[in-house]
Design brief:
The longest helix is centred in the first third of the chain and has 20 residues. The protein is mainly alpha-helical. The protein has 12 helices and no strands. This is DUF4192 family protein. It comes from Bombiscardovia apis.
């Protein structure tokens, strides 16, 4: 029996939800309709324009508190549940150097993930976590992002938990925090095919650390 056999995704009790299933379902219907009517690229750009701006503001130390039932946070949760580029943009927002953090660049990653340069940005950012010892986490930004993702998992319906949990697993691994494995397991309970959660689970199980951690240990 593995640790994952004992760990089950903690379903949110309906009475404790701050965001009702009906709210999210209506928002999801609107998102899908926008994509049908305006095309994926244009619809995703307009869908994420304000949410990604507010997300960047909050993770870099913004003073406003985003409620679980705020439109921006709900829009991000719906977007991530439907298309991985939105999830990837959220990851990059916590990985890339602060000097390179631009909501316009992240918006392009959401709307034009296969455009020239965007694939390279994504691959390099995620790759560097494993290979570049000079790349260290921005702890404040990562913690702020984890807090927002935790709001999604705590207050939104279970159908919108998989990707936030997978990201929490990845970012916790990047911070060298042990709870990332639990997050990844919970994502896999929701969807055994979640690739990001599988990668993080494997990293933890095989003792694979971020490159900056390995360098720190070598220098001790």
């Amino acid at each position: 029996m593995t640790a994952s056999d004992n760990l089950k995704h903690k379903e949110t009790e309906p009475g404790k939800l701050k965001v009702a299933n009906t709210q999210m379902a209506k928002l999801l219907d609107t998102y899908r309709m926008n994509r049908r009517e305006h095309g994926v690229c244009e619809a995703d750009r307009e869908w994420m324009r304000e949410p990604i701006k507010l997300w960047c503001h909050e993770i870099t130390g913004g003073q406003e508190s985003i409620a679980a039932d705020s439109s921006p946070l709900m829009a991000i949760a719906v977007g991530m549940s439907e298309t991985l580029p939105i999830r990837d943009a959220i990851i990059i927002s916590m990985l890339c150097p602060r000097s390179m953090l631009s909501y316009k660049d992240l918006l392009r990653l959401c709307a034009e993930p296969y455009a020239q340069g965007n694939v390279q940005i994504l691959c390099q950012s995620i790759d560097c976590a494993f290979t570049d010892p000079s790349m260290h986490p921005d702890v404040e930004r990562c913690r702020n992002g984890l807090d927002l993702l935790d709001v999604m998992v705590t207050a939104m319906p279970d159908a919108y938990h998989e990707q936030p949990l997978a990201i929490m697993g990845y970012i916790s691994w990047w911070l060298n925090r042990e709870e990332g494995l639990d997050y990844a397991y919970q994502a896999l309970q929701l969807n055994p095919q979640c690739t990001l959660a599988s990668i993080i689970t494997t990293a933890y199980q095989h003792g694979v650390k971020p490159a900056w951690v390995k360098r720190s240990r070598q220098n001790q």
